[in-house]
Amino acid sequence: xxxxxxxxRVAERRELTRREIIDAAWEVAGEVGLASxxxxxxxxxxxxxxPSLYSHFxxxxxxxxxxxxxxxxxxxxxxxxxxxxxxxxxxxxxKQMVRHFFDFAVADLxxxxxxxxxxxxxxxxxxxxxxxxxxxxxxxxxxxQAAGVSSEDHLILLAxxxxxxxxxxxxxxxxxxxxxxxxxxxxMWADAVGLR
Length: 196
Description:
The termini are far apart. The longest helix has 24 residues, at 9-32. The chain contains nine helices and no strands. It has two domains: 1-57, Orthogonal Bundle (Arc Repressor Mutant, subunit A), CATH 1.10.10.60; 59-193, Tetracycline Repressor, domain 2 (Orthogonal Bundle). By secondary structure, it is mostly helical.
């Protein structure tokens, strides 16, 4: 007689294969760029033929969708852990949040592009995969509003930080020029919105 639930080994293997495919997709995206990745390249990384990928994902966009969901899910998990221990000083707390996003963003160009730019023609994340990004933005807005930052000023900060990340990738990838300017950028924004 069995005392516990029966494992669904087929489902477990299927999920492991899906993870392997997504890991391979990230690897290929890092090598050739997000927009240049092909199903053939992904399949080769996992040791299967490209048509076999369709038994796990219905399309290339479905692979992008899962990549998007996992990227934002990873950021959400790391951000919520960091945000649980923010400084009690509003300006310093914002700097901590911004620094965490910046560091996460510049660690992987392809991931940042998928998460924050619309460079893939015809790809739009599904509601399911978009949900973690919405939760992150909503939670960060709540933290900022508690410090007296308006919704509009919160959006300005998001645009400012994205601009700094974009400048890093465009003009100093691997360098520290824009990383070094991050606190100053936040101070300029904080001064403009009256954040103590």
